[in-house]
Amino acid sequence: MKLHEYQSKQIFARYGIPIPKGRVAATAQEAEQIAEELGGRVVIKSQVLVGGRGKAGGIRLAKNPDEAEDLAAQILGMEIKGLPVRKVLVDEAAQIEKEIYLGITNDRAARKPVMMASAAGGVEIEEVARKEPEKIIKVHIDPLLGLRSYQANDIAAGIDLPRELWKTFGQIASGLWQAYCACDATLAEINPLVITSDNRLVALDGKMVLDDNALFRHPDLAEMRDLDVEAPSEIEARKYGLSFIKLDGNIGCMVNGAGLAMTTMDIIKLFGGEPANFLDIGGGASADKVAAAMRIILADPAVKAILFNVFGGITRGDEVARGILTALQEVKTNVPMVIRLVGTNAEEGRQILANAQMITAETLADAARKAVAAAKN
Amino acid sequence: MSILVDKYTRLVVQGITGNEGLFHTEQMLDYGTNVVAGTRPGKGGEWVLDGKVPVFDSVKLAVEATGANTSIIFVPARGAADAMYEATDAGVSLIVCITEGIPVQDMMSVRNYMDQKGVRLVGPNCPGLLTPGGAKVGIIPGDIAIPGNIGVVSRSGTLTYEVLYALKLESMGVSTCVGIGGDPINGTNFIDCLRLFEEDPLTDKVVMIGEIGGTDEERAAEFIADKMTKPVVSFIAGQTAPPGKRMGHAGAIVEGGSGLAIDKIRALEAVGVKVAKHPEEIPSLLK
Fold it and tell me: What is the ipTM for the molecules in this complex?
C-alpha cells in the first residue's frame, strides 16, 4: 500500500526527521489560508500516487497567498496519469543548495534491508543508478541489529556530506530506519533530502510503501489507504482477501495461486484470447470466497466467458465447486463457463458441478482453447 | 533418489490441530511420510488422527520425545515467524513453511537468524516438497507425480502441480519436487536446488519454474552456465502481466534487473536453457 507524500512526511516527522512547515488542503481557499500562515512563498504539490507529478505540472511555486489560491485551484482540477488530484500539500518554499537521495528498501537478493544514499539526488536518481552506479552508496542493515551509528557515518562520508551535518544526518538516517521498521514499510524514501542555504537538512519529499501483509498490525496505517488508485472491483476483492487486478480483455479468470493465475492469462493470450482480469483466490479458499470472486468477475460487462482453473492442493475442489454453485444461484448469467478441476478433492468437485452446465476441460491448453472459443461466440 | 526429504525424514507438524494442518497431515501419512509428532501450545498430551500422531506443547518437546529432524509449519501468518524461530531453536535441520502472507520484515529477521544457526528453510508461501514414492512434506497432491529422474524446482505453488501433472501424463517421473515459494524473502532458492540436483546421482534433468519479479532467474542462469552439466528446461509465468504501478526509485536501484518475464527468458535461453511457451509444453522439451 502506497502512502501519499504528506502522509509519509507526517510519519517521518514523528521519527525526528525535519520536514518543511506545511499542511494539506482540499480546496483552493484552504491553500490560500495555509500560504498566508506560512508567510508567503510556498510550493503547491498535488497528492497523487504516481511519479512524474512535477513534469505533469502538478508541483508549482507560488510567490504569495493569492497565487497559491490560483495554482491550487488549477492543480485540484487536474488529473495526473488518470488519477484525480483531490488534495494538495502546501509547503513553505525552501532555498535549496543541494539535493541528496536517501532511501531504505528490501534487498531480495541479500535478504536484508538496504539503506541507499547519493549526493546526486532528485528526479534523475534512476538515471544515476543506471549510468553511474558508483555514485550510489549502499549499506545493508542486519535486521536483527538495526542501523548502527557507524553505518550512518559511513554513508555521510560516502556521499561527501559536509562534516558539520553528519550528526543531523545520523538522526535522519536513524529516524528513517525507525519509520521503516515501525510501519512495516517495504520502501521509505526521501528524495530529495536537501541542504538549505542556511545549512540545514530538510526532507522535501517523502514516499512510503507499506507491506500489505503486515497491515493487520497497523490498523491506523491501513485507514490511510487511498481508494482512488484502485478500481472498485479491486477494492471489493480485497474485502474478501482475493487478489484481483482488472484487465482489458473479455475472458474472466478464476484461478488458485498467483503463478498459475498468471500462467492462465499467458495461455489465454497464447491461444488468441484476452484475459479480463487476474484473480487469485488464494490457498484454501472457502466457498464464500469463491462466490464473491464469481460476483466480481460477472459484474464486468465486458466478460464474455469465464475460465475456472483450479488445481487443488491446500484448496479443495469440492469447496470451490460449492462456491460456484452458490454464486450461480444468486447471479443468473448466460456467460459460458469453462471449468478445469484437478488435484485435491477434484472428483468430488466435479460431481457437485455435474448439473451446472459448464464446459469441462482436462488440460490447461484444452481449457484455454475452449474459453477463447466460447468468448468468440 | 532424492534431495532434502526421503524415508529418513522424521516430521513434526507445527499447527497440527488447525484445519489445514490436520487435513494435510492425514494426506502426508497416507503418502507414507514418517510424521512423528505435531505441536499446538496448550494441547500437549493429546493425539490426533485416531491416535496416529502425538501432540506436544512445543517443538523442543516433540524433538526430544520423537527425534524429529524436519518441521512443517501450517501456523497462520501472524504466528508463523514465531513458529520458525521456535523450530530453529529446537534443533531441526530443515523447516518447511507453507503459510502465506507473512510480513516481509518478519521474514528478513527469520532468515538472518536461521542463517546464523545453519538451519535450512523451504518457503514460506510454498507447497513444500515431494519425493515421489518416498516422502511428501507439504501440500502437493501425492498422486500427480510418479518416481523418476527429473528434478523440479518452482517459485510457484499450484503452477508446480500443473507441471508435475503434465509430466505424469507423459509417464515422466520426478526425483524430488521443491516448491521454494514466491515471497520476496524466502529460504532455499533456485541456485541451492540446482546445486543439490546437480549433485544428486538419481536426477538427470531439471525443470525450473520461475515467475516475474526479482532477479533470481537471471542469477540461476549464471549458475547454470557456470556449474550445471545436467540439462535444464524452464517456464516463466507472467509473460502477459501488466507492469506494476511502481512508486519510488529504490526497487529499480537495488535490483538492477527489470523483473520482466522477457528478460528472464532471454537470460535463460542465452545459456542454453529451453524455455516452454506454456507448462504442458515442458515434457516435449525434456525429450
Answer: 0.88
